[in-house]
Amino acid sequence: MSSVLFEAPGPKTRARHRTWSVLGAIAVAGFLGMVLFKLWVEGTITPDKWSFLLVPSIVLALLEGLIDTLMAAAAAILLSIGFGLIFAAGRLSRVAIIRWPCIAVIEFFRAVPVLLLIFFLYFAYGHIFGALGSLIIALMLYNGSVLAEVFRAGVLAVPKGQSEAGYAIGMSRGQVLSLVQIPQAVRTMLPAIISQCVVALKDTALGFTIGYAGIVREGQGIFTSFVYNNPIAVGIVLAAVFIAINYSLSRLAVYLEGRQRSKMQAEAPIAKTDANTGA
């Protein structure tokens, strides 16, 4: 189907696109090959640099670090969602004394870098929260503020007829928001929510700066030892772990979005039939 904005490419244009795509792929492959060759010559990715993966104690330490990272990420994500829901509701409030403080909190923590939040909480309140608590709270404040804006945008995107129907049957403002608007907003914004959860998971890597025993901290202990001295090999392994987890979450977002779209498409004919029959 042709677009109203541009014409569909013809055979020559498609052939030219394929040619440039092949040349681009060859150029990228050549560049990566040069990088790998250089690293091999420098002895940074030779087989002896990967020998740590054959040591059971090191593999076990990495697995324990991964579990610690996932636990911190899970706690931060759950708290961020709760924080986002509460402050999104507060920002949407019609009461100024509730709305303006929520706006101030959201805008402030969205603007402050996560690393600065982690440092501040750890050095100011580390004796209370510890490294894990400081990391989780910092991630909650930042990601929760971002999610608050996501939820607010989702609520505002819900058709006004939905809220008007709630008011028509006697619901209060809070009931319409919690029972009608937010559930629909969450379903609509689910891919964006999961994307922000991926950001929270990646940001747990910053915990190594305050000594949190996550997988990055364990990896740092490996490549800083005099036995291996292999930062690139360890970095590749850690990157592969994070890529696998984050890619899985991204695919989950795509799956849920497709499932939601199919559900809405299935419900549309039913709603149309009911409207036509007066049911």
- Number of E strands: 0
> Helix/strand-derived class?
mainly alpha
Helix content: over 70%
Helical run tally = 9
- Characterize the overall form: flat
CATH architecture classification of the largest domain:
Orthogonal Bundle
End-to-end gap: 37 Å
Q: Summarize model confidence as the mean pLDDT.
A: 84
CATH C-level category of the largest domain: Mainly Alpha
Report the biggest beta sheet as strand number plus sense, adding barrel if it closes: none
Q: Helix and strand string, N-terminal first?
A: HHHHHHHHH
Q: What is the percentage of strand-forming residues?
A: under 5%
C-alpha Rg, in Å? 25 Å
What count of structural domains? 2
Q: Give unreliable regions as ranges.
A: none
Q: In the CATH scheme, what's the topology name of the largest domain?
A: MetI-like fold
Q: Look at the structure and name the CATH superfamily of the largest domain.
A: MetI-like
Overview of this protein structure:
The protein is mainly α. The protein has 2 domains: 9-42; 46-262, MetI-like (MetI-like fold, Orthogonal Bundle), CATH 1.10.3720. Helix content is 80%, strand content 0%.
